[in-house]
Amino acid sequence: MYVPDDPPATCPACGDPYDSVSRHAEGFVANLLDNERYRRVCFYPVSDDGDPAFDCYHHTHAQAGTET
Ligand SMILES: [Zn+2]
Questions:
Q1: By three-state DSSP, how is residue 48 classified?
Q2: 36 CA → ligand 1 middle, Å
Q3: Distance 49 CA to ligand 1 centre (A)
Q4: Which InterPro entries match (predicted)?
Q5: Nearest to 39 by CA among 68, 11, 24, 19
Q6: How far is ligand 1, taken at its centre, from the CA of residue 40, in Å?
C-alpha cells in the first residue's frame, strides 16, 4: 500500500474531512473495533495504473462527528 500522489481535500465516499489516506491494490483486513484513534474508514474504488485498487480514508472520532 502507499499514499496517493494527489489526494482529494475531503473523503469522496462521505464528504467529511479525513486524517490519512492509503491506497491498496490487494485485499487486507480493517478492524476498528478497538481503535482509539479512528472512528471510520471509507473505501473508494480507484484505478492503479489500469489495475483495480481502492483508497482507504481514515476518519478520527472528531472528524466522524462522534465527539462533542
Ligand atoms: Zn469517509
A1: strand
A2: 17
A3: 23
A4: DUF8145 (IPR058458)
A5: 19
A6: 7
Among 31, 45, 27, 36, residue whose Cα is nearest residue 19: 36
How many whole angstroms from 67 Cα to the centroid of ligand 1? 16
b/e string for 47-65 if b means 16 or more Cβ within 10 A?
Answer: eeeeeebbbbbbbbeebbe
**Residue 55 in 3-state DSSP?**
strand
Cell numbers 473523503: residue: 11
Report pLDDT digits (tens) over 15-61: 999 999 999 999 888 887 878 899 899 999 999 889 999 999 999 98
